[in-house]
Sequence to fold (74 residues):
Amino acid sequence: MRTRFAVLVVLIGLLGVARDASAQGCALCYTTASAAGAAAQRSLDYGILALLAPALFLFLGVLYMLYRKATSLA
Fold:
């Protein structure tokens, strides 16, 4: 059971590393972001992290609860 969970975590991690997972490829978004100054690009990066953090913590929390429940049943 533990190795299945580890394999699942590794596969999910590999999906996040995929080249196309880093951006949607929107031409307008890319042009606007590349034309902005360094401060605006840094603000966009912080905004992305601010939107990513709560979703990531919720996802990891649900995975942890599922793992804990699965190990208590076995």
In short: Residues 24-74 form one domain.
